[in-house]
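Researcher: I'd like a structural prediction for the single chain below. Treat it as a standalone chain; there are no partners to consider.
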Amino acid sequence: MPETTDVGARLRDLRKRRGLSQRELATASGVSLSTISKLEQGATTGDVRLETVHHLATALRVTTTRLLRRDPASPGLAPGAWLPLQQALESPPAQLNDEAHVQPVTDGLDAARSAFLDKRLSDFVTLAVPLLRDADALDHDTGRALRSHLLQLAGSVLTQVHAYESAEAALSRALDASPDRLRAASVVTTWVWLLIRQGRFDDARAMAIQWADDLEPRMSRATGEDLAAWGWILLQLAATSLRDGRRGEASDALRLAHGAAVLTGRELSPGKQRLATWGPRTVAYKTAERDIILDRPDAVLRTAERLSAVGPAAGTEHHRHRLDVARAHVKMRQHSEAVGVLREVHAAAPEWLTQQQYARDILSDVVERRRTLTPDMRDLSEALGTTV
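Model: Treating it as a single chain, here is the predicted structure.
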């Protein structure tokens, strides 16, 4: 039988080969019957989450890659609000100029990075579009470092809004402009995430393994940035291995990342080398992400409680972690608590939250399980664009 190119068709084919009904697969995987039915009909293929595919693949005893096997990113336009960023990246290169002024680009990058870290994505686009051409004109190590950082930021934003081809082009240029291995490692960390978002697990895993091997530090001499670069690659290796059903490999990578975080000893803020925080708290967030994928909601809630006792919310991964906490509450049938977490994230980062299919899935699960919707649920549903 020819290989199909649609996840719903492959799901239906594998389910029938296993002799399972849709209801039996729902029971075995923990994925709702309605989701399986919609997938097989092709109604939700574009929005299916990797974790959903992972649970289905586990129940069918195949790798996530085999079930998903998405085609590589194809050319296309970014969503309207992000189109100027895509166009700025695709415009002809500026003429290189050794005398171009570094300080205005440095100041502009600081402002753009602040908007990115605060999850003010439209503000980032406004700042980055003119800055990309200015940075393009700098032809020295300092200028290349600035250009690499800005292109990585652009690639990350375009990944978040699913403009994958443009994101990969930005990250390729960012890697080319990287003046040192730590700057390059940061770009690769984002690139692996891009590959994961596309379901290209084999490519993501190969890239992460290669860079983890190259970056492994001598512990007696390792700086905090050395540990952060290696540790983040390990976190990405754990993420892609886990989603592809390689649990042992994921556990090994997460264990090594935890050791690197312990050696770091504290949470390091983003800077010239990294777009993300790094340290014990970040690894705890990623451990909770693993636990939600492995259907351990109680462990996620224990991690959240422990982190809350340690200190106030912190880190670039905090909002993503709170979505895992909301999912854990849903799994524990604590729907009011889940809505409370979503409202908290929406208040802190509304523009970011509206880009998260994960948040829409969580709220849809709450709506599906509740007969009566509260005003908070209706307000959130309107903000996220879900139907009630």
